[in-house]
Amino acid sequence: MRNRSGSGIRLDYFQRLVNRSILKYQNPATGLIASRHDIEHSWVRDNVYSILSVWGLALAYKKTADLDEDRAKAYELQNAVVMLMRGLLRSMMMQSDKLEKFKKTQSPTDALHAKYCTRTGKTVVGDNEWGHLQIDATSLYLLTLAQMTASGLNIIFTLDEVAFVQNLVFYIETAYRTPDYGIWERGDKTNHGLPELNSSSIGMAKAALEAINELDLFAARGGPASVIYVMPDEAQQCQAILTSMLPRESSSKEVDASLLTVIGFPAFAMDDLSVIKATRDLIHSKLEGKYGCIRFLRDGYKTPREDPNRLYYEPSELMQFENIESQWPIFFALYHLNGLFRNDKEQADKYRQKLDEVMLKTDDGIPYMPELYAVPAEVVHEEIEEKNSQKRVPRGQKPHMWGQSLYILGRLMSENFLSPGELDPLNRRLIREDKPDVVVQVAILAEDAEISHALAKHGIHVQTISQSYPIQVHPARVLSQIFSRLGKSKRLGLSGRPSGEIGLLATSKLYMLDNKIFAFIPQFIDAHQFYMSWDVDFLVDQFQTDMDFLARSWTMLGRPLILFLVSNTMLDYSREMPSALIGTLKKLQSGYISGTRVHMGKLSDFLTTSCMTQLDFLRDQDDPSQKEGNVLDFIDTILSPSCPRPHLLAAAKRARKTSRSVSGQAIYGIVRRSRSIQIDSEQIPDMLTHLNARMRAGSVSQGSSNVTCSSTERIHAMGLQFNQTKERKMSPGTSNPLPQSQRGSLDQLNPLTIQECSGSVPSSNLTSTETVIPAVRPIICPIEESFNFEDSLDEVPKIADVIKESDPVYRHRKYSIVSLEDGTPAAFPTCNDGSCQGPSFALTLHTPGDHQSRSSSDDAQQGRRIVYDAEHGKVSDDAEQGRNDSYDAEHDTKASYDTLQARREWYNNPRDRKTSDEMHDSFSGEALPSLGLGKVHSVSDGARKKRSSVVHVVSQYGYRTFTSDMSNADQKLQLKRMGQGSLENARDCSCTIAEKDSENNFQHLRTAVSMHHSHSMTLSGHHNISIPQGNEVNVHELLENLKQSDSLQEQADIIHYLYTHKGPDWDTGIDSQRKCTVRDLLTELYEKAGHWKQWWLVRHTAGMLKKRVEDLAIAATDLVVRQKQLSVGMPPYGEHIITCPLPPDELASIIFNAYAEDSSSASLTQELLIYLAMFIRTEPKLFSEMLRLRVGLIIQVMASEMSRTLQCTGEEASDHLLNLSPFEMKTLLHHILSGKEFHISAKHPSSLNIGEEIMELQTRKSMVVSQRDLDLISAPAEPESKKDKGDDRQGQWLRRRRLDGALNRVPVGFYPRIWKVLRRCQGLKIDETTLYRSLTEEMTEGEFKFALEVEIVLNQIPEPEYRQLMVEAMMILATMVENDNCKINMDQIILVDHIVTEANRIYVETQKIPPDILNNCMGARGICFHLYDSAPSGPHGTMTYMCRALARLFNLPVQNGDLECTIS
Fold it and tell me: What predicted TM-score, i.e. pTM, was given to this entire model?
């Protein structure tokens, strides 16, 4: 025990110091301390920090007391501490209604107030009159409460107070995604009331959550009801976000001295020593001065240039505060304390000496700390010239009680009155100590005995769920419901835990209630949640990732225990275990997987080594008489199954309908039309080149002596989506008449361009990926009069091969060759069971001399049309049955090169499109382009003079032929039958085609129909999927179709129509015994699609059901807090920007609104956000220098990459993309982000296993390809020749620039270097937008807000490859600024576009490209394609030419040819 003459007297000195500088301001009634002597406002943060010295002095007296007087002083000081902590608790409890609201809204107006009245404890300002949302203040209170309770103080008295503290935990646990006003109450440093995500708030919240977890607030006198529970995943999420943000404080503050409270006392929130050192060093280098540390760069508080009459600053003002920011001595006190806690004597002595130099003294010798030191107004210019050169004067509060308390606490520790363990009884300071390796315990459970036996065949012996008794196993959603009862209090109006999400750490523990043990299956395995768990490959990959996460993040007592349930949904179609699952389980048996130590065993083996938590809080505190058994009934209620849904869409045998109804045809393909994925036409490969290469390789014979139509025309006639003029129409020696810049995407070109065959009737493709394919899909092959049926039998299989190659849906069909009675050959697909499951088609046979289209009257005499109907399995002869009104397959149109080029330009330049009358004049009687839902064709001029005039109108609702022999009524009837409108629409065509040569009437009809069709589709990226006006859609017919249909595609179309037109809660009446709503049908379709792994339909139905992935908000937060902004929706006009973390429901609502009716893309966006968050946690380098992640653009990039690698059209690529499994989607995204070359190829299996055959029967009418048809993304195959290698290299840099531009990727250090460029010039003009020098006055070079300003300007450039050239030009500017020693005069607005344009001009001059060739290789913005495809560095790199352009624009004395860029 210390000698009274020494320690006792010294403690009396500290007591006098505490009383005169702190306790004299404490209110005797409320216990609150006024932060200033002239105002009765008590800030929560200031009060907590101020009372720390009182608590420390009480501990010192209690430890060294040798007289009753000392014990009395200790008791008095302890009660002062308890009084203040309870006073704050009382003030906050009076706002319990706001606390309840905040749990749901996280709105600043619903936050607990930051300050209260010192006399009454009530609020002093309104909700909107102060930045009340200060999560760090509430977290500091909870952290201090936990430390004081652990030291032996009794602060909490009742269970209602325990419930309120529990809800305070809920209040701060979302700190990682809740922007607040921070420790300085300002938010953004301009003090405009803009909250930010602050590292200091997240770190303090993380420390508080860890400290108070499973702490008994009644201390030694407590029981199970007074224990506080924290979801460990919330604390870990704060840890992850904090690690990623440090040393940055927020978006507007690149560093802040308040982070000393996070990396040291009192939070000790960071365990990574490298991050701690980096943060401490940055604060020391940028913020520390002679009198203390400045709070953050350009802080204008109490500086001589600050306007004291307003609280906020204008952005342009911030520059004037540079180098004259006020310095705060409080941070020297924090340095001193941290040195003592780290046992760093050198640091402790250094900052104690600095403290002594800045402390002031009263007249009687009492030292006190001023709030800050400011530069006198008269020496401002001298201080700006030389930082820290002028003497400063103390200003602000005297004493600054927060700093005064920390000063006293440090003195008590330095004089050995207190040890670090007494101020930190929870051992927060030991968080940095090395921990032993974590062994992850794994228990594999089988859903039933069948699964157990299947695993045993592979040598893996596991228990079933029923065999795990006495441990009860439940899904994670049960644990979520259990924790929803935590913190409930009827008297305070508190509802308990708001979130329904349960993380992996929470399910990796065992729980006990009434001597019963519970274990929980992780949420990612729960099939009741989002559909990604239906993909076994993704599930296995996620399982391995989670085990690595557990090994890195586990900090609790015991070992983590993860359960993996093998269910029936994981089996393949043959009821076999997937190889990926078996391989993973084998690795678990070895004891290591992906570098993680694991121990696989039975669940009962881990009882003694696992972490165990009590669930006693389930008892209702308002009902003390509640029995033990009633508590367990709550769990049974959660698990009780709902009424099973009848299999309303089951594929039972039904009477096959004779034909698809008109209503069914009208809505067919409505799901596909709801998509909004678009692909840049210039990024789609030349399909014709690929097809010709295949034909040359032998897939299709180039010619036959009996068939004079060219192979290209023959393929066109069989449904392939491409257009090309015949070779004889092209210029001699020209293989491709159109430059790449003028080629439209294949899904935009009019697929009904008719090619003229020499001496034969032209053919037409009656189906289009733009339109909805009719029930009977005609594939017309033109046959000349010299056609020999017997000799052509060997040709028909080749035709069938082309059909199989071109249509991914029907690749698995077997095509049979059938000879009709008259010897006509026909090829049609059949299934293994002999049923016809493929596309319908027709062969039209023409008699000699028949070179025009038939009219309805002479149909039988002039041609025979053999029609194969796939739905009914019949082959019919048109000549015998009469004209087929629904599918007349003949067209005769002359498609010249000029028309084709005009059409392509019309599609590629929507802004330049003419009116319908102008279009007629432009196309001069040729096939008119429509917007995709209808096509209009007329006969050639020569044919019109010989025979009756004919107009063919084709649409997804069928097609009709209009001839001059028709009456006006017949024409109206034809239009009405097409479903294109009512008689009023047809009346608009008011023309009678009675005269054979009535050109004007025909033009009127053609234009009117085209105008009508032009209103059927919008140009904004979201297709108008509404059904044309009229009463052609009969809901009863649709319901009958739905009952009879066993096609997922048809069911999806019908249910989609009912959902959008009748609503989700409309009673369909399908089930006579109970109500059956559209939502019920949609839910069953969703589950059915998941069973058959039809991912395109799974995603679509999930979007319609508004399903939200469980970790959506966490994933978005992981990206946003790592300084990545998000945008969802399809560019350029449908994007929504997400700049801050949002609650889950609000975020999901933004996503669904962004994509409107495109449910598939909404679901895919949620998926991609999950994958992006996974990657940024594990591979942050993938996102290097990417500020905004445009998810919609990423989707388009993925679709374009699918189109490039699969050599397919844009719409087919969208089909392939949406039908990728979640694991394949994740893999594709990773390859795109990493920039690696990859390859996707289509499989052509010779046979199907039974499971796949069943699936095919279910989805034979689907228009998408299964993921099993894709050789999943892999490394490209080895080139066979040097020529192949050269072909692979060609386009590599163009593709790389397009990818980097689409991903908004810039070089490392790009934004700080551009900041330095702006300091030298007046501005940078980038694509009509100027970045002015004033930005450097508003923001610092490392400020995230500056980077966003530059990024916003760059994102206005629509062409990604041109954007990247602009970035390269700006890098050249930055390099020049860094190396010219300010010799070049740059005091002007620099036009970055001119640098790129001049570089292109120099490139063309250097390469000596002829003008005619140059016109054919122009890319975006008139830049040569070859320049786009050049490497950045090297003698012929893009930066070399930009250096020359820069030298020319700035008139630098450099000779041409002497300047070479060496930047790599």
Answer: 0.71
